[in-house]
Amino acid sequence: MNNTLWKFLSLFIILAMVGVAGCAPPAPAPTTAPPAAEPSQPTGLAACQGQNLVLASMTDQYVAAFRVLVPQFNQASGANITLDELGYVDLYQKLIADFVGHTGSYVLMTVDIVWSGEFGANQYTKLLDVYMERDKAELQLDDILPVSWTLGEWQGTHPAYPLAGYANVLNYRQDLLAAAGIEPPTTQEALLDAAIKLTDAGNNLYGIALLGAKGPAVAQDYMAWVQQHGGRILDDAGKPVINSAENVEILEFFGELFQYAPPGATDYWWDQRETAFRSGQVAMMEGWSIARAGYEDPEISSIVDNVGGAPCIIKLLEGTQGLGVVLAENKNAAKSVLEAFNGLKARVIVQEFVKEAKGADIRAFVVDGRVVGAMKRQAKEGEFRSNLHRGGKANLIQLSRKEKAAAIKAARVLSLSIAGVDMLQSKRGPLIIEVNSSPGLEGIEGATEVDIAGEIIQYIERNVQTRKKKIQKDRVNA
Predict the structure, then answer these.
(1) To 10 degrees, the CA torsion angle through 375, 378, 384, 386?
(2) pLDDT at 3 over 60
(3) How far is CA 467 from CA 169, 411, 457, 473, 477, in A?
(4) What is the pLDDT of residues 420-469, one digit of tens each?
(5) I need a surface site. Which of 97, 154, 316, 375 has the fewest CB within 10 A?
(6) Which parts of 313-359 fold into alpha helices (H)?
(7) How much is the CA Rg of the chain, to the nearest whole Å?
(8) Tens digit of each residue's pLDDT (9 = 90 or more) over 338-354
(9) What is the distance between the alpha carbons of residues 152 and 117, in angstroms, rounded to a whole number?
(10) In the chain, what are the domains?
């Protein structure tokens, strides 16, 4: 095993040892008998023999390394690590549910540095300092940039170990800046000036792409601008200073930049910001350095042609609530989006864009082979995603015979007793676009005024009774 691989696998061992199960031998039971000679306890990889561990990983670029190294580690150690790949929001929600519910589903996990404080304060994860000290010779801790340690600290301790570090870099179109006679900006004032000069809304060209979506997206971008302006989010006592005169001035500058961003930028998540830049709609974009490597990749999938060409819908497999869903209006835009996701090692699906659906879809809720409720979701004006979390509106709808049959068949084919089946109304009849095995209830119960939770409970009760009768029958026959 080469030194690089072993160094990486050592990280797995450290994390596993502080988890619920972990690669560590059990402590011997207390005894009052005279101590007998005990066999030496296994250490290193040998201690992992037979351990079953689950690694919850964000679908970031490093997940590609996990896909290669996890099987190698399993083979070398005799452990069985299962890799669970999750989107950003799903990962956070599942980890919190696991911690709060004490279910112990995950032993190893990747975390965003902004979660470190929460996890450390609530003691969700064990501190790794003692293990890092023990194995410092093997880990070569001085090989990791100091900033990687400080950003993930909690009160001087380490609830997580540095895994991937990105730089926030300014990407810009050399051709557009050269044509406008603009030097690459090196100050905030120069950046704003360049964004103003490069914006040509009449030709759908804008100076800069920004993150504006409510939540972690806009917060991340704003904090990056605060840092670049030399400001601070926390004071020396660790208290927020968001409303300081300095930070308010920075916020006003940040807001001014949006005047030179594409329409809808205030709803941009990471994927939409990347798409705006890669499709040539904007001249500049600040973003993570990890995506930079894929900007000139000449090889990209031809799957767009397999769904009838552009426009088409490109979705992250791990996306939820409309996040990670992009409408590529032409082939160049589709190519750019696929390059962006490919650069992030993300898994995507490409779907046909059904124009006659006009931003609307149907959610049919199937329980035990029948449709118990259905709603029609209509996207807000200027939006193609009908998800209620994206501002869509839901109304009760009476399904046609074909639509009911399609929903029931989709659930049956996937062996789902409970499912939310999403479909589009098209000239060719109902088209299934998604089947959800754990659909939400709030939206459809509000639109239909049907007690769908009650329908599910009744199904479970029927199923339990049926299973009880079968068990009793089998006992009699035995």
Answers:
(1) -40
(2) no
(3) 59, 21, 15, 10, 15
(4) 999 988 888 888 888 888 888 878 888 888 898 998 999 988 888 777 76
(5) 97
(6) 331-343
(7) 26
(8) 776 766 666 777 777 78
(9) 8
(10) 3-25+41-151 (3.40.190.10), 168-296 (3.40.190.10), 303-353 (3.30.1490.20), 357-460 (3.30.470.20)
